[in-house]
Automatic annotation (TrEMBL):
It comes from the Bacteria. SUPFAM superfamilies: MoaD/ThiS. Pfam families: ThiS (PF02597). PANTHER family: SULFUR CARRIER PROTEIN CYSO, SULFUR CARRIER PROTEIN SLR0821-RELATED. This is MoaD/ThiS family protein.
Amino acid sequence: MAIEVRIPTILRTYTDGQKAVEGTGGTLAELLADLDSRHTGIRERVVDGEQLRRFVNVYLNDEDVRFLDGIDTKLSDGDNVTILPAVAGGSR
């Protein structure tokens, strides 16, 4: 089962600069474990323990996984997962 994962610029050091990589897994947790087996360190940038990090947003086919089942969100062949770091700040 191939799932495309879009990687934000800040995490591309883990994927040798690739904007998107393919992974496999029946859930988001399994997908992240699969990615980490080939791109060591990427999982810990997205997950804190067994939860998504607070300032990282993950989308499954454009839907925020926090409104689905979080890290236990089920995946299907052909799905697209996008990892986005939350952006904050600005001027006063």
